[in-house]
Amino acid sequence: MSILVTGGAGFIGSHLVDRLAARGESVLCLDNFDDFYSPAVKRENISGALRTGRVELVEGDICDAALCDALLARDDVRAVAHLAARAGVRPSIEDPALYERVNCQGTINLLEAARKRRARLEKFIFGSSSSVYGVSDRIPFSEDDPVSEPISPYAATKRAGELFCHVYHHLYGLPIVCLRFFTVYGPRQRPDLAIHKFARLIEAGEPVPMYGDGASRRDYTYCDDIVDGITAALERPFEFEIINLGSAAPVGLRDLIGLLEEAMGRQAAIERVPEQPGDVPVTYADISRARRLLDYSPSFPIRQGLAKFVEWFRANA
Ligand SMILES: NC(=O)c1ccc[n+]([C@@H]2O[C@H](COP(=O)([O-])OP(=O)(O)OC[C@H]3O[C@@H](n4cnc5c(N)ncnc54)[C@H](O)[C@@H]3O)[C@@H](O)[C@H]2O)c1
Fold first, then answer.
1. Is the CB of 183 under 6 A from ligand 1?
2. Cα radius of gyration (the chain)
3. Is the pLDDT of residue 227 over 90?
4. What is the pLDDT of residue 137?
5. Is the CB of 250 within 6 Å of ligand 1?
6. Does ligand 1 lie within 6 Å of residue 225's CB atom?
7. Cβ 58 under 6 angstroms from ligand 1
8. Closest CA relative to residue 221, chosen from 86, 90, 88, 130
9. Which residue among 4, 5, 18, 32 has the greatest number of ligand 1 atoms within 8 angstroms of its CB, and so is best to mutate?
């Protein structure tokens, strides 16, 4: 029996693949090593897992419907963790059609392939995002809040993915869990994300951009906590659920820079820049559903998570 992890060479995907392989699961890892950031970094991410002999790497694209079908046709595949996507809010504003193709059409290809094997498939996990909440003053964000006003193409594609998941559950009875990840960080974090980008600039002695007045807040969530949530969703029986995976402890941008300075033992030069279009002022997860349904309990406070990130960053810079 094996689990298909799409985007398995990426930041979150590779941590999930490592965890599954360490538990003795067989993993089919599908990734196209796209150029959003260095493919060499992704090859490094997945190298340890490949050495376990439990992971089979398929280099291919979720936009290739025939490939998705062929992978799901394999009798041993019993679950899908679909994490492949074009991620990132700002680049989605530059190329919305690309985001729609990969994040929507790619997801539909997998759902189509999955529904034909409904009898065998135990679970389809969809990696969604806190960005679906848009600009909301109801905090913390609850899964029951309205999510019909996304403010970036990326957020719209993630919400569309959730909606298609619901359609495939309704029409075909596919058991599906959409997990809304809140700003994930830790070793292997994508180089475009704030913590990684800021660490690079601090190390190089270059100015760190502080957007707006630095008051925007993010519910930074350590990668191992996210993987705990994904594996719990894979293990437990569900019909259809949408579940937040966050820390429920938002940190202001100004404070984040201070905590990163502390973790790196270096002072940052701060450059104030305007707010970025598409960015939301706050993310803050209500994780009561995750606690109840997944026994989820995030265990990495930001200081501890940053220390682990900096240790990895220094070893891999
Ligand atoms: N990192 C976060 O803070 C965060 C927050 C919310 C949601 N998410 C979601 O979690 C998932 C993983 O994000 P990540 O941060 O690990 O990003 P990532 O870019 O590191 O990982 C995505 C992986 O998918 C692969 N991929 C992209 N397009 C593909 C395609 N067409 N076919 C096959 N593979 C493809 C990439 O090569 C990459 O390895 C994404 O769906 C993302 O939208 C991430």
1. yes
2. 19
3. yes
4. 86
5. no
6. no
7. no
8. 130
9. 32
| Number of CB atoms found within 10 A of residue 209's CB | 17
Q: Could you give all domains of the chain from N- to C-terminal order, each with its CATH number?
A: 2-182+223-246+286-298 (3.40.50.720)
Residue 256: strand, helix, or coil: helix
Half-sphere exposure of 28 (CA within 13 A, CB side): 20
Residues designated as active site: 154
Please state which of the ranges 37-46, 93-102, 271-280 shows the lowest mean pLDDT.
Answer: 271-280
Atom of ligand 1 at shortest range from CA of 33: 37
Note the pLDDT tens digit of each residue in 65-82.
999 999 999 999 999 999
* Residue, of 279 and 160, whose pLDDT is higher: 160
- Retrieve residue 186's tokens: 């830790």
Name the E strands within the chain: 2-6, 26-31, 55-59, 77-82, 123-129, 176-181, 184-185, 208-211, 217-218, 221-222, 240-245, 251-252, 270-273
pLDDT in tens, 132-171: 999 998 999 999 999 999 999 999 999 999 999 999 999 9
Whether residue 278 is predicted with pLDDT greater than 80 in this model: the reply is: no
Distance (angstroms) between ligand 1 centre and the Cα of 8 equals 8
CB 216 within 8 Å of CB 253: yes
Judge whether 216 and 179 are in contact, CB under 8 Å: no
Give the integer Cα–Cα distance in Å for 230 and 187: 18
Nearest CA to ligand 1 atom 15: 11
pLDDT for 151: 95
Quote the pTM value: 0.98
